[in-house]
C-alpha cells in the first residue's frame, strides 16, 4: 500500500493491510475498544452514495488499532483508476466521526 499524507494507493488484486488509529495532541494512541465500529469505504467519486468497496471492523489489535485486510477479491472487480476513500467511526457511546472523508485512493494495474 502506498500512503502519501491521507492519499492511498494499491495494486488491484493484491493483499494489503491498512492500519488506522487516532492520536491525541501528544501523539499518544487513542485506542479503539469493544463496542466501537470502524468502516473503510471506497467510492467512485466525491458525490456517489453507494461505495464500491466497504469493510468494517468491530475487533481491534491489542493496542487499539483498526487493521483492515484488503484481499484480492476486494478489488478484482474494480477497474484500475482514481477513486476516493473514507474512514468512519461509530463509537461504543454512539458518537460518530468521519476522520477521513473522501481522500484520494488510486488503484493501479499489476
Describe the model:
This protein has 110 residues and is mainly beta. It has a single domain, classed as Sandwich (Immunoglobulin-like). 4% of the residues lie in helices and 52% in strands. The protein has one helix and ten strands. The protein has one helix spanning 72-75; strands at residues 2-4, 7-11, 16-20, 22-23, 29-30, 37-43, 53-57, 66-70, 81-90, 96-108.
Which characteristics define this entry?
single chain; 110 residues; mainly beta; Immunoglobulin-like; six-stranded mixed β-sheet; two-stranded antiparallel ribbon
Write a concise synopsis of the structure shown.
With 110 residues, this protein is mainly β. It contains one helix and ten strands.
Helix content: under 10%
CATH superfamily: Macroglobulin (MG2) domain
Largest sheet: 6 strands, mixed
- Helix/strand class: mainly beta
Distance between the termini: 13 Å
The CATH class, by name, is: Mainly Beta
CATH topology heading: Immunoglobulin-like
Mean pLDDT: 94
Strands side by side in the biggest sheet: 1-2-10-9-6-7
Total DSSP E strands: 10
Level-2 CATH architecture: Sandwich
* Percent in strands: over 45%
Radius of gyration over alpha carbons? 14 Å
Detail the poorly predicted runs.
Answer: none
Assign an overall shape: globular
Series of secondary-structure elements, N-terminal to C-terminal: EEEEEEEEHEE
Which oligomeric form is depicted?
Answer: single chain
Domain unit count: 1
| Helical stretch tally | 1
Amino acid at each position: 500500500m502506498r500512503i502519501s499524507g491521507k492519499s492511498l494507493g494499491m495494486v488491484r488484486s493484491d493483499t494489503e493491510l491498512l492500519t488506522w488509529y487516532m492520536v491525541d495532541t501528544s501523539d499518544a494512541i487513542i485506542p479503539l475498544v469493544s463496542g466501537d465500529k470502524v468502516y473503510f469505504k471506497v467510492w467512485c467519486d466525491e458525490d456517489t452514495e453507494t461505495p464500491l468497496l466497504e469493510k468494517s471492523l468491530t475487533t481491534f489489535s491489542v493496542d487499539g488499532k483498526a487493521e483492515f485486510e484488503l484481499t484480492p477479491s476486494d478489488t478484482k472487480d474494480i477497474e484500475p483508476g482514481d477513486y476516493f476513500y473514507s474512514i468512519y467511526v461509530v463509537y461504543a457511546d454512539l458518537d460518530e466521526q468521519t476522520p477521513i472523508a473522501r481522500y484520494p485512493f488510486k488503484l493501479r494495474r499489476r
